[in-house]
Design brief:
Helix content: under 10%
Strand content: over 45%
Shape: globular
Radius of gyration: 11 Å
Order of helices and strands: EEEEEEEEE
């Protein structure tokens, strides 16, 4: 995990991963490269089952494990969706 991925949100189900190519496999998950040119987003259900969308403000990386998404708070916005 890179030091920039200092925040996490529970993820019970990864629904869709758009515009985020895999960067590398880690022991605890997979790191993805985020390039805002590709209009990236991550759709997932949080730990209590609410559907959320993660959109990105700038280029960064995120790591997705079996239970959570690790990210830098300054790089993303997370909103609930129906």
């Amino acid at each position: 995990m890179s030091s920039s991925e200092s925040n996490s949100i529970g993820c019970s189900l990864l629904i869709d991963l758009k515009g985020c190519p895999e960067l590398k496999k880690l022991k605890n998950g997979t790191q993805y490269l985020v390039d805002v040119v590709n209009d990236p987003s991550i759709l997932f259900k949080d730990s209590v089952g609410n559907k959320k969308e993660m959109k990105f403000k700038k280029n960064c990386t995120v790591t997705i494990t079996l239970e959570k998404i690790l990210y830098n708070r300054d790089d993303v916005t997370i909103k609930s969706i129906q």
